[in-house]
Amino acid sequence: MSQRAKRSGGRASRVAARTAPIAGINPCPPGQFGGQYQPLNPRELSDILDTAFRLLAEVGMSEVPAGFEQIALSKGAELNGLGRLTFSRPLIESIIDGAAKSFVFYGRDPKHDFEIGGKQVRFGTGGAAVQTLDLETGLYRDSTLKDLYDFTRLIDTLDNVSWFTRCCVATDIEDIFDLDVNTTYALLAGTTKPVGTSFTLGTHVDPIIDMFDIALGGEGKFSQRPFCKAHISPVISPLRYGEDAVDVTMACIKRRVPINAIIAAQSGATAPATLAGMLAQTTAETLAALALVNLLEPGYPMIFSNWPLVIDLRTGSFCGGGGEISFLNAAAAQISNSLGLPSGVASSMADAKAVDAQMGSEKAMSAVAAGLAGANMIYESSGMTASLLGASFEAFVLDNEMLSHVNRLIRGAEVNEETLGFEAIKAVVNGEGHFLGSDHTLAAMQRDYFYPTIADRNDPASWAELGAPDAWSMAKEKAIEILQSHNPEYLSQDADRTIRERFNIFI
Known about the structure:
Blueprint: H1 2-19, E1 32-33, H2 42-59, H3 66-74, E2 78-79, E3 85-86, H4 89-98, E4 102-105, E5 114-117, E6 120-123, E7 131-133, E8 140-142, H5 145-155, E9 164-165, H6 176-190, E10 195-197, H7 205-216, H8 221-224, E11 228-232, E12 235-236, E13 240-241, H9 243-254, E14 259-263, H10 275-296, E15 302-306, E16 310-312, E17 317-319, H11 323-339, E18 343-346, H12 357-373, E19 377-379, E20 384-385, E21 390-392, H13 393-411, H14 417-420, H15 422-429, H16 439-447, H17 460-465, H18 471-485, H19 493-502
Parallel strand pairs: 6-19, 7-21, 9-10, 10-11, 11-14, 14-15, 15-18, 18-19
Antiparallel strand pairs: 1-6, 2-3, 4-5, 7-8, 12-13, 16-17, 20-21
Helix pairs in contact: 2-10, 4-10, 5-6, 6-7, 7-19, 11-12, 12-13, 13-18
């Protein structure tokens, strides 16, 4: 009995050693280096870029705001016979040379700061869902400001969501200024991670940045650590500028708001149905956005966000999931990386409405493709459902875990004397004949492996004893637990009072 107890105690201690978390070790943190997947071969990449440059030089841009047109003409752009603004290849190449190649995206808490550029990969959010998958009913309803605030609090706890851009629209606020203000207030109140928002009009920028200054403790504070980027679509496909978005761009540059310039053409509708033609046009359009920003201020921090989107050509409906959109966004990342520009693409925009197998396959496929391609900022990667019409609390929880697996995949294997394990193999072959419990195994166990908390790895009998839970129900429980327990107070009472005296805050 004493011998059995001794052996049992030894086994128990080994199990405890294997399962105890190792402080400070995360086998799959954000910021892994991608670029292993290059969907375009060198000739294809060159042909697409050549066509993009040719489109800007020969076809050019229409609906150019007068103020920007004069600036562009003074710096080397030209008007063609149709009155369209054209950019020669040498001009665009000089703009690329002078553009920001990397910059720091700040959080209100410095622990969340990170650099955008190179091939470091991070996942975050985006979207403008008008519906939310209700936690209680499991059905969709109109999104509200409370939903947005709750989503913000939720992602504040999710390690793989490196930044938060509002994922839903508060449809219960009618006034567009109040909508922009309350959207950004929800971001301030719910997280200290870097955030992103959109401005409906250029005139909304100054008051909202003033609100950020109040939150940070004084005039000009935001410009010192700009923690919020602007999501702007200054180019409307095919090949024309949007006046309101250009106004927003100018206002953001004035107040030092980093710019995420998004081009979101749709195949077969606002861009060619062929994948190559789609990439050529959207690359030209994103370069036109880069020209806008850099002719206004060379080197200004801008994310080159080429988001080629797909529609189902049978119905005209947007398709967030599938092989085509996964390929296109991975290729967009490869193109941006070839130009040396901070890149943004989209992924995980599942068409599925339920938290089910369709959702998982669509999300994982596109997230893996974009991550391995080396996109710096992968938008829409968490929480989005129903072809971007919906957002889900459960999906956020599941996506956060899925992204740990994706980050682990991107990380790959470190090959060195220790990891090759020659001495460990030799010791096992000449010793006990297995690697269980060896120092080499214990060292690798948590350094090299990720262990999910939502995904079930129990045997069938144990799973049945636990009530046969599915991923949706487990994610729902986790989301409810977070929302009940995580109620941060990131605004001082004085700042909050000052903001509420100046603005109509509905939270």
